[in-house]
């Protein structure tokens, strides 16, 4: 058996010679360009299937300080009289981290207070992370807070989220990837919101309670972070909509 000698023209890389044949340089160049382009295309395709997390974020450069009234509806809310003819506003509240603001609300419920904090804002959803609450004799008690206005019974399709993360504390603050975080936030007392695919009175998010207007319990767990359909009564509290959900009508869509 005989072996033909290898042609001297066959490109072969030898490390210690510190020289790469021209044909291998060309191959590596083409491969590198194709590899980078392929990875970029794959990244684009994967990212295009993800939902836009929106513009939600902490507004650290816009500290909140207002005089108003703290109430439990049934989660802590802060109601502010409209200035210069503007309508009154109602803000949902959270504490630091994954905690609600029940402590300050119980201590100052129904009293005029000065509330300081940081807004967490996404679109027309604004939640205030409470930094401090102090009683005051001025301003907050000078206006009469209106009772909730019924907007009737609705069947809504969407997702149950925790209000703080959805507003911008996390990006994205919804979906199955966020379920464990949402569980902790809601267990800590942060108000849940129902994010609807259809609007009621121009709004697509609602502070969520049970059908009696009370704080939600374990009935929320099997439905959290899923796409569901559910019926309930909608009420308007100033500019905040409250969805009193009837969980016996809930149906998981996907």
Summarize the structure.
With 254 residues, the protein is an alpha+beta fold. The protein has helices spanning 22-48, 102-108, 163-169, 179-187; strands at 57-58, 64-72, 76-80, 89-94, 112-122, 125-135, 149-162, 192-200, 203-210, 228-237, 240-252.
Overview features:
254 residues, alpha+beta, OB fold (Dihydrolipoamide Acetyltransferase, E2P), 2 domains, five-stranded mixed beta barrel, 20% helix, 39% strand, elongated
Radius of gyration: 28 Å
In which order are the strands of the major sheet placed? Answer: 2-3-4-6-5
Please count the beta strands (DSSP E, at least 2 residues each): 11
Give the helix level as a range of percent.
Answer: 10-25%
Tally of helical runs:
4
Mean pLDDT: 87
Unreliable stretches (pLDDT < 50, length at least 5) are: none
Distance between the termini: 68 Å
Topology pattern, helix = H, strand = E: HEEEEHEEEHHEEEE
What does the main sheet amount to? 5 strands, mixed, barrel
**Total domain modules:** 2
Derived structural class: alpha+beta
The geometry reads as elongated
Beta-strand residue fraction: 35-45%
What would your notes on this structure say?
- The chain folds into two domains: 57-142, OB fold (Dihydrolipoamide Acetyltransferase, E2P) (Beta Barrel), CATH 2.40.50; 149-252, no CATH class.
- Helices cover 20% and strands 39% of the residues.
- The protein contains four helices and eleven strands; from the N terminus they run αββββαβββααββββ.
- The strands form two sheets. A five-stranded mixed beta barrel has the order 2-3-4-6-5. A five-stranded mixed beta barrel has the order 7-8-9-11-10.
- The longest helix is centred in the N-terminal third of the chain and has 27 residues, at 22-48.
- The mean pLDDT is 87.
């Amino acid at each position: 058996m005989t072996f033909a000698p290898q042609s001297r023209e066959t490109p072969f890389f030898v490390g210690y010679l510190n020289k790469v044949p021209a044909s291998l340089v060309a191959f590596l160049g083409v491969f590198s360009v194709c590899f980078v382009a392929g990875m970029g295309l794959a990244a684009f395709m994967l990212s295009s299937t993800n939902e836009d997390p929106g513009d939600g974020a902490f507004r650290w450069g816009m500290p909140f300080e207002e005089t108003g009234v703290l109430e439990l509806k049934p989660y802590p809310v802060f109601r502010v009289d409209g200035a210069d003819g503007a309508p009154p506003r109602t803000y949902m509240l959270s504490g630091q981290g994954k905690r609600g603001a029940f402590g300050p609300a119980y201590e100052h419920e129904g009293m005029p207070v000065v509330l300081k904090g940081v807004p967490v804002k996404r679109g027309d959803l604004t939640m205030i992370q409470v930094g401090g609450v102090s009683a005051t004799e001025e301003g907050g008690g000078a206006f009469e807070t209106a009772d909730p206005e019924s907007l009737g019974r609705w069947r809504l399709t969407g997702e149950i989220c925790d209000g703080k993360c959805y507003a911008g504390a996390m990006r994205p603050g919804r979906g199955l990837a966020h379920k464990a975080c949402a569980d902790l936030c809601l267990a800590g007392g942060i108000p849940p919101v129902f994010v609807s695919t259809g609007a009621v009175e121009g709004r697509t998010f609602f502070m969520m309670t049970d059908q009696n207007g009370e704080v939600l319990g374990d009935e929320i767990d099997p439905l959290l972070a899923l796409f569901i359909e559910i019926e309930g009564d909608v009420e308007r509290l100033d500019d905040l909509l409250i969805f009193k959900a009837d969980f016996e009508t809930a149906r998981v869509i996907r």
